[in-house]
User: Fold this.
Amino acid sequence: MSDLNIVMYHYVRPILGSKNPNIKGLELDGFRRQLDFLTSQFNVIIAEQLLAAIRYGDSLPPNACWLTFDDGYRDHYQFVLPELIKRKLQGTFFPPQAAVEQRKLLDANAIHYLLDKSTKTDHLSAAVDEGLLLSGATEAEIAQYKTRYRRASRFDDAETIYVKRMLQHVLPKEIRQILLEDLIIKLLNKTSCDLADELYMTSEELQEMISAGMFVGSHGAGHDWLNELDVKAQEFDIQTSLDFLKRLGAESESWIMCYPFGAYSEDTLSIISRLGASAGVTTRAAKADLAKDNPLLLPRYDTNDFPQ
Assistant:
């Protein structure tokens, strides 16, 4: 068999009644129910089975399912790991190097927490427009940005997507970082470093997970949109993440790449191939077919695509 249902997770935690009730994530009870559903309907595989299927042509079991967890959240150590161990399952985890070793707050996470605390999305949208004016954009150019990026996605309305895209990568990096730090202090009453310490696993926790049988792959170093970096910057980012995997004691010879935001270019594929990647996962929602799909571009379903 070559079909594979890959499930993508991010935040998994008790959310209702927490201090961040508007964060979009999977409730812990929902995760437990989903694991029960997946184990009853699918054969949950380990990463090594996927690698053997890609490298040696080994067959996957029927109704194969693979569990993946992005971004290195402490949620995964605190809440996910015990549930996986209880069911004798393996998860594959993709932590960005900078979040774990440098305690750098990822822009995506800063935006999630700002959206959680902001009473109106248009408050953040206005802050974005101010940032654009500071960068030298005209009113006409701002209108063009809104036409291009204010478009609803599967899970967010148009205004939220506009805020996310502008603060993730469209605004110049220097202005983006200043604006995000200012908003975090004003709305969250803490610094980005404070939030990073709360959010991400440590290297020691990741090593515990590896010792418990979990698989850890690459999610880049800085969690950047790789398709917007030049070749040299992409190679540095990916190699930095591989050095990080080696320090953890994770697999770094036949390894798996997870593209931040699902973004990549032909240069990205060339670089990871040369550096020994056997598989790569995207954010395209579909069932993977190892007989047809490029193994470096495997699609994944979101957790919301399955019962919770």
Summary: The first strand starts at residue 3 and ends at 9. The chain has a mean pLDDT of 93.
